[in-house]
Amino acid sequence: MQDQTIIDDQLRFYREGHAGCLFAAHAAIDPAKYGWRLRVVDPTVAGVESQLRDAITSPEISTLSIIFPTVRTWPDLKALLTMLRTCPSFFVGQSIEVMGMVCLGYRARVGNPISWVTGFGPFEFFPATRRSPYTEIALRTKPRPNYRIVMKEAPEGVIHLADMDMLTMSRDKFTSLWNGSFENTAKVLGHKPDLRSAAKTTFAVPVAVWSESSWAEARRVTSYLPELVPAANEMAHLV
Asked: What is the pTM of this model?
């Protein structure tokens, strides 16, 4: 399958609102306008690091999606998670058990800020808002825009997908998408958001299969950089 076909299928997932976030649905109509780059890559350290470095240094790119169409089974996903742990730019910053799932939070070093990595994929055990046609990791690669009004404060030193540049959007449109995102996320999930679908969680995987993995020692990690994620903010980014 051609790379552009894969990217188009993944963008359709966003455009149709399946990710919950209506800002993503809006941006997916014209991703380049919002500095959003999508690339199809083999799940290798070299491939991932190359895409991340290029996105960090490219002034026109602020959000990067890396799509792995060959990652379709649990062994594939386990291999991807293991590979990401060996990437120089990535680390595991969260590993918390919630309702029979291990919520793994991968982080990327993109300069001074730490970027929360959001994951998607064709896995039934993923929250509905993360169940996309292809496996993907998405992350912010530039500092947060200088918004005059901040709707929800992020932990100091942290950036994530919600920091996508919407500075040219009207206040009414922004407010409409903001409020609509909460409603749509709950509708897609079928319940209120929780840590399994939170921005700080990359992938939520069943405890039973995860505990059989050779890298299950990551389970003991709850915060790799505690000074960047104050306890008071732990539940502030569930959508």
From this structure: 0.87
Report the candidate in 77, 69, 76, 75 with the shortest Cα–Cα distance to residue 202: 77
**Residue pLDDT, tens place only, 88-100:** 999 999 999 999 9
How does pLDDT run across 7-30, given as a tens digit for each residue? 999 999 999 999 999 999 999 999
Contacts of residue 70, Cβ cutoff 8 Å, sequence gap at least 6: 42, 43, 76
Q: Helix, strand or coil for residue 118?
A: strand
Cβ neighbourhood burial of 171 (10 Å; 0-12, 13-18, 19+): exposed
3-state SS record for 29-90: CCHHHHCEEEEECCCCHHHHHHHHHHHHHCCCCCEEEEEECCCCCHHHHHHHHHHHHHCCCE
Asked whether 101 and 33 are in contact (CB, 8 A), the reply is: no
- Residue 207 is given by DSSP the state H
CA nearest neighbour of 237 among 122, 140, 167: 140
Strand order in the sheet with 118-120: 36-40, 63-68, 135-140, 118-120
* Side-chain half-sphere exposure of 110, counting CA atoms within 13 A: 30
